[in-house]
Amino acid sequence: MELAASSVRESVSSGSGSLSPRQLVEIYRLMLLSRRVDDREILLKRQQKIYFQISGAGHEALGVGAALAMRPGYDWFFPYYRDRALCLALGFTPEEMLLQAVGAATDPASGGRQMPTQYGSRALNIVSVSASTGTQLLHAVGCAEAGRYFSANPEAAASAEGDYRAFRDVIFHGDEVAYASLGEGSTSQGEFWEALNTASNKKLPVVFCVEDNGYAISTPVEVGTPGGNISRLVANFPNFHFAEVDGTDAEASFHAFQAAVAYCRAGHGPAFVHGHCMRAYSHSLSDDDRLYRTQAEREADALRDPLAKMQMRLLREGILTAEEITALEQSVDQEVAQAAELALQAPLPVVEGVTRHVCSEDLDPTSSAFATEEAAAPGTVAGGKAGRAPSAEPRTMADLINACLHDEMRRDPRIVVFGQDVADASREEILAEVKGKGGVFKLTAGLQSEFGSERVFNSPLAEANIVGRAIGYAVRGMKPVVEIQFFDYIWPAYHQIHNELALMRWRSNGQWASPAVIRVPIGGYLTGGAIYHSQSGESLFTHIPGLRVVMPSNAQDANGLLRTAIRCDDPVLFLEHKRLYRETHDRAPYPGPEFAIPFGKARIVRPGADLTLITYGALVPRSLQAAERASRDHGIDTEIIDLRTLNPYDWEAIAESVKKTSRVIVAHEDMLSWGYGAEIAARIGDELFDYLDAPVRRVGALDTFVAYQPILEDAILPQPETIFKAIVDLKAF
Ligand SMILES: Cc1ncc(C[n+]2csc(CCOP(=O)(O)OP(=O)(O)O)c2C)c(N)n1
Ligand SMILES: [Mg+2]
Predict the structure, then answer these.
(1) Which of 139, 108, 86 minimizes the C-alpha distance to 476?
(2) C-alpha distances in angstroms, 299 versus 34, 89, 276, 293, 455?
(3) Does the beta carbon of 217 sit less than 6 angstroms from any atom of ligand 1?
(4) Beta bridge partners of 641
(5) pLDDT at residue number 363
(6) How many CA atoms lie within 13 A of 634 on its CB side?
(7) N or C: which terminus of the chain has fewer CB atoms within 10 Å of its end residue's CB?
(8) Residue 306: is the preceding peptide bond cis (ω within 30°)?
(9) Any idea which residues carry the catalytic annotation?
């Protein structure tokens, strides 16, 4: 009687038309298995043996239908928490699910870090998903783009020693498809529309599945979806295959997915399957739907239960007798009970391991492998169509960032660059006539012309789209080096950065990682930059575990640190101060294509004996001015430390200097309160108290936004004068 999911998949994909009785029985078995794992979890939760439960009850027909139309370990999956049946039908086992529920060390998705149903499996190509509704859709889009890229450029998949590629294995198939699902409530998220936008525009092989159970917790569908039907709203997206299906009917669901997957595999574009299903239980075990649904409604919904419907069909059509149904139930129950027993005996995670996989355990960007600072030979100029010409002439930070991007893209075919206006021209045929844009600050100029539109391209004006897709690319082993046009507009992407980019490795217990680089122009001192072109806010990012945050103050450091950012295996936020892009004082000769600076190594900008000034970014030149004046006017000898990387940061350099001078100021452009300096000052107070002769001082902007009128801007942001006064003051303390 029993038949494995894989054999259903094979026999179905080779055959045509309706499903055989044996196939229907296997579909029923998988649906039942899913429901019974839910029921077992509910029992375990009531016994307080697990800590959270959310069920897939009512969604089983859609999940099994999708899974049987696709290929585990070949296609790619970005499911959501209702996709228990999908995952079981792909090959995730009941025991593995229950290991998640108990939070076991052997939980294959996260090692006890994530809630149950936040699935993940390398073997099955189920990419780790979070609890955030809708974020995974953009990952699926980036994943599909990466698959297409590798198919067109198979040589890019080759491994390479000496950078992240040694640890990012690549698999791809020319006709692979990515699956991404969500509830109908989550279609209200902007990222849903951003994902459809790119999938449509680029004709990507992504099957979007909306599992419409009519509610988002207690909120009915019409609140978030005008008119109450998402299919009507998306119907005009070009290039899509659309299907609206009874998602409580397993066979209809399966056929809908079969057609959708075939459309995607053939390369016609994305597909949108809208399945009307139902919620057999409340939202989760923490919810009681009797509070917001009438009894009549709940009873009517119960008649649509896909499991009951399938069982009735098997009986009605004489495929199974009542006795055979009972036997099947017993065998499924036994399987689930055994799985629960094993899960309850499984080893629990060790407390000592909690910080494992915050960052890469394989490649350490603070290591000497990235210390080619001295070895690199200055004297050649990178960039441009002509390639590298010898030159020792000093170049700006903007030039040397651009040069690094050219160098690295030549060296590593897995790098793609995208963002708003980063291309020379999206309509590439006009490049014969026009010079091209290459970024609003021209940092990416010439990249598209040299490396083509497949590797350098404009994104829609949507920051979450940029970072979300970058994550999808990066989990496939590519190296997206994306640009957020202004730090002031990074906020729509903050969710992706905080909950996805930085977390991918830790939450999947090292199974998945998304080491993308995000370049971001930041900061003020622009004279007229005002509120929305002058923001700082780096401490909001250094507060995110797993994210490396870099902020160079000069051309040479920018070049060497960007190289490390690109070659390392962690996600990096690379903050480029706009005011420093074209300054004359921070220029440097092009240091060559192998020049790298390790993270977490500060630079002593000015040695001194009397006082330590810790800073970074645009306050480095301002601090230098202040220190020179303090030396001239008062004979105070200030040591200036440029941190260069903010997370990790060079505690040894700080400690060594403070032990020598016993007086310390932390100065930054960002607002004083809750700023980056608070952490450094606190740690100095904590660990170096015995060495201090005075309190730790901080210099920062006033606790307000940056105003447009230059008189106001000058008063708000810290000036050389502000720092000078702090130096004199502290020396006199
Ligand atoms: C970004 C985000 N906001 C809010 C939540 C809390 N939340 C979890 S599930 C949910 C409702 C989702 O409804 P729907 O998309 O219809 O999926 P369903 O649970 O009905 O299958 C909400 C609001 C969340 N997890 N993520
Ligand atoms: Mg819903």
Answers:
(1) 139
(2) 22, 29, 17, 10, 54
(3) yes
(4) 604, 614
(5) 97
(6) 18
(7) C
(8) no
(9) 533
Cα-based distances in Å from 440 to 355, 385, 437, 522, 708: 39, 20, 7, 13, 20
At 392, is the pLDDT very low, low, confident or very high (cuts 50, 70, 90)?
Answer: confident
The span from the CA of 663 to the CA of 675, in Å, is 20
Integer Cα distance of 483 and 448 in angstroms: 14
- Say whether 145 sits in a helix, a strand or coil: helix
Quick check: CB of 184 below 6 Å from ligand 1?
yes
The type of residue at 88 is L
- pLDDT of 381 > 80? The answer is no
* Residue 186 three-state SS: helix
Digit-coded pLDDT (tens) for 103-137: 999 999 999 999 999 999 999 999 999 999 999 99
* Ligand 1: nearest atom to the Cα of 495: 1
Contact 187 CB / ligand 1 (< 6 Å) = no
pLDDT value at residue 383: 44
CA distance 460 to 493: 13
Residue that has been written with the tokens 């599992």 in this structure: 211
At residue 594, what are phi and psi to the nearest 5 degrees?
-115, 10
Amino acid making up residue 84: R
Quote the ligand 2 centre to 278 CA distance (angstroms): 8
Residue with CA closest to ligand 1 atom 26: 132
Render the burial of 417-434: b for 16+ CB within 10 Å, e for the rest: bbbbbbbbbeeeeeeeee
- The encoded tokens of residue 667 equal 């100065």
Contact 138, 130 (CB under 8 A): no
Q: Are 555 and 395 in contact (CB under 8 A)?
A: yes
List, in sequence order, every residue forming a beta bridge with 437; answer none if it has no partner.
Answer: none
H helix or E strand, kind and range, residue 725 = helix 720-732
Nearest-CA neighbor of 112 among 125, 122, 98, 124?
98
Q: What is the mean pLDDT of residues 164-181?
A: 97
Question: What is the CA(37)–ligand 2 centre distance, in A?
Answer: 21
82 lines ligand 1 (CB under 6 A): yes
Q: How many CB atoms are closer than 10 A to CB 485?
A: 21
**Closest C-alpha to 132, from 582, 623, 467, 629:** 467
Q: What is the pLDDT of residues 65-80, one digit of tens each?
A: 999 999 999 999 999 9
Contact 676, 654 (CB under 8 A): no
Decide: residue 288, CB within 10 A, 0-12 exposed, 13-18 middle, 19+ buried: exposed
Q: Which of 268, 190, 122 is nearest to 467 (CA)?
A: 190
Closest by CA position to 205, among listed 160, 246, 284, 263: 263
The better pLDDT of the pair 7, 630 is held by 630
